[in-house]
Amino acid sequence: MDDLLRIDDTLSEEQRLIRDTVRDFVADRVLPHIGDWFEEAVFPARELAPALGSLGVLGMHLEGYGCAGLDAVSYGVACRELEAGDSGLRSFVSVQGSLAMFPIWKYGSAEQKDEWLPRMAAGDAIGCFGLTEPDHGSDPAGMRTHAKLDPSGDWILNGAKMWITNGSIADVAVVWAQTEDGVRGFVVPTDTPGFTAPEIHKKMSLRASVTSSLYFDDVRLPASAVLPGVRGLKGPLSCLSEARFGILWGVVGAARACLESAVDYSTSRIQFGRPIGGFQLTQEKLAWSYVGLGQSQLTALHLGRLKDAGTLTPRQVSFGKLANVRAALDIARQARSILGGNGITLEYPVIRHMNNLESVLTYEGTQEIHTLVLGEALTGIPAYR
Ligand code: FAD
């Protein structure tokens, strides 16, 4: 499909090389299998993680410890190409790099960084991020998971987390818990006694992604397990801001894949003696999807450049997540209708992306919460409670 606005022409040569390398990886390693993985609800993480590590996309925006140390736009472009494959693939990379590696890199001790970051960058160790709980999703301030120092100086962690991407395949969990000093982050090796992570089944979205509950039953951790560099909810919220940046780029890829599929289909499917792409109603759907895609891409690129300039704010990230995920879901739904009956099978990518985007609309701040963030930005009045 033609890039009418020539947006990628404004990328640097290195950024275009990253685009092409990740796109080739997805075409080679993911697209031939993704329909089956989705149907069978599997994500072959142990195979893909080292390959993604070699590709250089795990923690690619972090410096040192075997990470690529690339700029934000490069990270965004990689997320876009990964999610053109599947939101589950991009979720894996986002959780690994932005939610598990980032807090260790930003707030961890030298020992925590040395122990985990090189292995995570290589894809030899998998991480997860535990914030959401069964009773506390949009409002994590009320979390019940708690850690107490016992007389020996160890931490004792108790509680439960829910909807945790990579939970049951992770080697290490970054877990946020209440302490006497407020919310703290803990680096928890998943083979610690008392830690269990059953997988959540029967999902109709992000099926090619592992989602789990985490349970902590008197999990004993050394004093050194706490992230020393941050206290309070700003710890997990700063990680989410990093990951949302990947989302607002990633969904552009999912939307592009849907529109490409709809354009292809509309020019070959004949009804009433002509291609359905020759009907004005179909062209209207395609044209508005093209507009939505271009606007989302421009938003992502602008926010990427602000991030590279060091001025990107969490509110701007909320704007991008809200706008781009809604646009992507709209494009996916229009594409699905253009494909008619074929739009509901896994022979085409559209319904898989459409169903995946329902999760993306909900996780890392629901569309309602990001709407309230923008409402507060405009009026100065917080309306969360
Ligand atoms: P709730 O907070 O109960 O919200 C339910 C509805 O009420 C939503 O529509 C919401 O917008 C609305 N609502 C809530 N409060 C308000 C309000 N003040 N005003 C208006 N409307 C409101 N979490 C992690 O910690 N780590 C992960 O790796 C992770 N991965 C995930 C993977 C998947 C596939 C999914 C589905 C979720 C994942 N999550 C993860 C959890 C996700 O972030 C939460 O689902 C999300 O924050 C919403 O929380 P909730 O599901 O409890 O919904």
TrEMBL record:
<protein>
    <submittedName>
        <fullName>Acyl-CoA dehydrogenase family protein</fullName>
    </submittedName>
</protein>
<feature type="domain" description="Acyl-CoA oxidase/dehydrogenase middle">
    <location>
        <begin position="128"/>
        <end position="219"/>
    </location>
</feature>
<dbReference type="InterPro" id="IPR006091">
    <property type="entry name" value="Acyl-CoA_Oxase/DH_mid-dom"/>
</dbReference>
<dbReference type="Pfam" id="PF02771">
    <property type="entry name" value="Acyl-CoA_dh_N"/>
</dbReference>
<keyword id="KW-0809">Transit peptide</keyword>
<feature type="domain" description="Acyl-CoA dehydrogenase/oxidase N-terminal">
    <location>
        <begin position="12"/>
        <end position="124"/>
    </location>
</feature>
<dbReference type="Pfam" id="PF02770">
    <property type="entry name" value="Acyl-CoA_dh_M"/>
</dbReference>
<dbReference type="InterPro" id="IPR009075">
    <property type="entry name" value="AcylCo_DH/oxidase_C"/>
</dbReference>
<keyword id="KW-0285">Flavoprotein</keyword>
<dbReference type="InterPro" id="IPR036250">
    <property type="entry name" value="AcylCo_DH-like_C"/>
</dbReference>
<dbReference type="InterPro" id="IPR052033">
    <property type="entry name" value="Glutaryl-CoA_DH_mitochondrial"/>
</dbReference>
<keyword id="KW-0274">FAD</keyword>
<comment type="similarity">
    <text>Belongs to the acyl-CoA dehydrogenase family.</text>
</comment>
<dbReference type="InterPro" id="IPR037069">
    <property type="entry name" value="AcylCoA_DH/ox_N_sf"/>
</dbReference>
<dbReference type="InterPro" id="IPR046373">
    <property type="entry name" value="Acyl-CoA_Oxase/DH_mid-dom_sf"/>
</dbReference>
<keyword id="KW-0560">Oxidoreductase</keyword>
<dbReference type="InterPro" id="IPR009100">
    <property type="entry name" value="AcylCoA_DH/oxidase_NM_dom_sf"/>
</dbReference>
<dbReference type="InterPro" id="IPR013786">
    <property type="entry name" value="AcylCoA_DH/ox_N"/>
</dbReference>
<dbReference type="Pfam" id="PF00441">
    <property type="entry name" value="Acyl-CoA_dh_1"/>
</dbReference>
<feature type="domain" description="Acyl-CoA dehydrogenase/oxidase C-terminal">
    <location>
        <begin position="231"/>
        <end position="378"/>
    </location>
</feature>
